Amino acid sequence: MAQLSFNFFKSCANKEMICWNEWLETFNPIKNNVSSNSSYDGMMFETYGNDLVEINKSIESNSYSVWTALDSDGVILIASGLFNVNRIGYFLTKISPPNFMQVLDN
Question: CB-based contacts of 17: which residues, under 8 Å, 6+ apart?
């Protein structure tokens, strides 16, 4: 299976890196209303089951923007978009990013 490295994120065109608190304030992630014990203060969606069904519904309806929490060489990054490799979970936000963005989980 292919592995993403931190260099993948450094080299993406039109990227922007922001910190966790700035991401929270700017993009307004929603609470996971499917699972009651989700990580990241109840905001992360799992990569399987009913959580993944909710993510796919959001993509189909274009109601929220999807972000993916990724393990990149031991560093947790949250990237705008839906990724399958090295994913830890997903987030949904009310505000869409203007381009590819990354969030450093501090």
Answer: 9, 101, 102, 103, 104
